[in-house]
Amino acid sequence: MSADQATMFAAIDRVAELAHAAAPMWRRSSSDVRAALLNGLAAALEANAAALVDLGDSETGLGAARLNGELARTAFQLRGFASEVKAGVPYRTVDDPAVAGAPPAGRPHLTRVLVPLGPVAMFSASNFPFAFSVLGGDTASALAAGCPVIVKAHSGHGALSRKVFEIAAKVVEQQNLPAGILTFVENTSREANAYLVQHRSVGAVAFTGSYQGGVALWRAANNRPRPVPFYGELGSINPLVVLPEALSNGEIEPAQTLAASIALGCGQFCTSPGIICVFDDDAGDRFVAELAKALGKQTPHRMLTEGIRRAYEDGVERLADHASTKSLVAQPSNGSGPSPRLFEAHADAFTGNTSLHEEVFGPAAVVVRVRSIEQVIDVLEAVEGSLTVTLWGAGADTPGNRALAYAAEQAGGRVLFGGVPTGVAVTHAQHHGGPWPASTSPQTTSVGYAAIERFLRPVAMQDAPAWVIAVRDGSVQS
Amino acid sequence: MSADQATMFAAIDRVAELAHAAAPMWRRSSSDVRAALLNGLAAALEANAAALVDLGDSETGLGAARLNGELARTAFQLRGFASEVKAGVPYRTVDDPAVAGAPPAGRPHLTRVLVPLGPVAMFSASNFPFAFSVLGGDTASALAAGCPVIVKAHSGHGALSRKVFEIAAKVVEQQNLPAGILTFVENTSREANAYLVQHRSVGAVAFTGSYQGGVALWRAANNRPRPVPFYGELGSINPLVVLPEALSNGEIEPAQTLAASIALGCGQFCTSPGIICVFDDDAGDRFVAELAKALGKQTPHRMLTEGIRRAYEDGVERLADHASTKSLVAQPSNGSGPSPRLFEAHADAFTGNTSLHEEVFGPAAVVVRVRSIEQVIDVLEAVEGSLTVTLWGAGADTPGNRALAYAAEQAGGRVLFGGVPTGVAVTHAQHHGGPWPASTSPQTTSVGYAAIERFLRPVAMQDAPAWVIAVRDGSVQS
After folding, report:
1. A414 and B440 in contact by Cβ < 8 A?
2. How many domains is chain B built from?
3. Which of the residues A242, A428, A433, B435 could staple to A413 if both were Cys, CB 3.0 to 4.6 A apart?
4. Which residues of B are less than 8 Å from A95 in CB distance?
């Protein structure tokens, strides 16, 4: 092991020990204490908004408007999870009184409680420097569940991450809570990341990022002597289907809406539409032409990191070189951002060519020309699981639309019947997940209030004395 | 590939295709249709009880009383899941109306629905020829969720499994349902089992069995191009703690109760107590002596298979040969069953010796002598995750008992404050799972009505037309 590696491992041991030490107190904390921390973190973010957005913009180039919106969302969801805690969600019990007599009807008294999984290793994403980072949804939901959080910062916004962490650590201190509730590591190697995932004190892992990096850590979690739950969001191609009905009022407006979504944030969204199914007819031709025109006019800002830019250029080159694709938009880049790209392929060629199905992270998409709803369904079945599937023009209750809606729910975690998939509301009904590789754990969500469930494990208490249940919500001094 | 292997793979392809073809109909089935099948299966089991119990006893040696009870439990839980379906559990939605305005407060209309995972490969257990087999809890909960089930029979009761399947298939046919809803494979090799787990048509796997076999299939599921959820129950040591308070009324009765639990069903229960923590004092000495006496008098019936018997003999030999253990019960076997065994070790020696922590499936247990509650906690932290932890004499609200209850909920999926862990009630509050290796998916349960959640995945429908939600519960013709 190199000296650097040893230093990193020692830093991880240190924060893991702090988190481990804080875990018993935090799991027993009352709803008032937990909600006060979450609300305090939201207020501290807002109080420092101007400086944080400046710093974040200088590191990521995402722009003040976007970063202000993202900071507001991050504060909103911290407060949202505080409300969940106050409503008693992580303390919820299911109680079955004893029934006299022989089994199967006779039974003991059982109370099902929820137990926090312990310290959560949280791997920040590159593309949301607030909402999927130090104080993002994974941190908020894990803290709400009663789990300490070990933040692994993303190097794409390292200074911002450190600053947000310092602000957060001050709130923890001001509220007289142990520092181990929220800890921080940065500039870790791949080996150190795996070391963190395999640390004995870590009870669960949350990850948002690349397929390759995510799979490596998922395997590390599964190779522990005692594997722990791993929640990874690894990639998504987000098919969007333009049915002929969607173009009955013209092609220009829908094409402009879609082009803006493809280029939004320089395409650096997990929910960025990457495959556009368009019918092979005159209206479809006009739509594709308008889409190409509108996308060609987009001037995306620079990408988050040099590595992401290189991966984007490699990805579009792969698509451009493919025998089955035609390039529709390919201008030289105008300035710091990459050139948006649009490709076209016929469904017959697309469906069997898995190399065309891979996510290209950035402002690029593939138009797949189809002749029937059956061909759309073939495309949805061929591609891997996605966070979203969008159906434009599927409003009417027809057999074709029923079949399409069915195929869409098989392929994704969220099905939109209008609008664009970029933008994910923080609500109870939200589901941000989906079949592999959209999520390594497709029954869970990383956005919305159900995210809290990822960090809790049921335990059935059998014939427990009353105090065992009473001490659990922190309302009784323990 | 051998000819045998090719035949097995072809048989698996056949049932997987049938299940795949039946999946769309079954996921859209109404609560009436689904509940009628579950209730029909329960009634058919009961109508054939005498013949099935005879056949099962001849194969397993578990005895008519036990098998009649198990059949009754199996019918009870089929009917229980029918009630869950009628109550609408698998059709449940969460609806968040649209809110006007900009995000984060503004949002589209979102309806979270539950989508069945598709065909479930269900690996039957050796030790519950009814309740964890063809029509057991995994099958009942998967069918209730809307998933077809591919049963992989256990060779320990192959004839019974085939007979139960034939009875069930007749019910499926009589109710005019496609045969693919419930299919059956038997006498499969390890390679064929992995082939089934990796089959493209399989959407989830349920497994109850050995650590080695379970881990192999779990890895196979994770090595699919697109991994799917795997629910495995792989083993459990089930610590039972005898606090001094539990012996204040004498040692004989508790010792007899415990000895009967250790030897129940020849110790072939996932919840059989394998580690008994007893204080190192006079009452503890008397209890251990009574336990040894009572266990020595037990005459367990024969084990389920020759392989299980060999593994038991190997396991007890390993314990007997260990330098840190003392053998307390070791009579020659009297007849067809194995000899019950009891060993003793001191906590200091036990905690650090992981070879003493391994489950020995059968009527054996290790008494661990402790000097303090802290040492009990050390033992609970040292052993792997368990389905159950039992605390005798922890009724009073003391700091020691709080610490013990906390350690117990960390180590297990069910914590008992009295009684013995063998016997698992089918209720809403039940949790039959626990940290690895008790479960590969510790947030889920394989017994009780929450088991249905394993086979459903949330999908958020955004701005969906009303028919999209309405057709989902089968009440609208689709």
Report:
1. no
2. 2
3. A433
4. 429
